[in-house]
Design goal:
By secondary structure, the protein is α+β, with helices and mostly antiparallel strands. It is built from one helix and two strands.
């Protein structure tokens, strides 16, 4: 099932697979409108699982969260 078709449904578990050569889960341009829409769609897919969500992604995939920044020294 596609992420679009999962809207409004619930499952005990959800497995989301990102292919290495297919379209990535997120647009690689940080802050783009496409990336924001991709994030909303991914959130829909992730919230369909009642008990378990598994993400399977290639090692080369862009991070789903921004990189952590070190705290500034006083």
């Amino acid at each position: 099932m596609t992420m679009h078709k999962s809207k409004g449904k619930e499952f005990d578990a959800v497995i989301i697979v990102e292919g290495q050569h297919d379209m990535p889960l997120l647009d690689p341009v940080p802050g783009s409108k496409t990336q924001e829409a991709d994030r909303r769609l991914l959130r829909v897919a992730m919230t369909r699982g009642r008990h378990l969500v598994i993400l399977i992604r290639p090692n080369t995939a862009i991070p789903l969260t921004p990189p952590a920044t070190a705290p500034e020294a006083p």
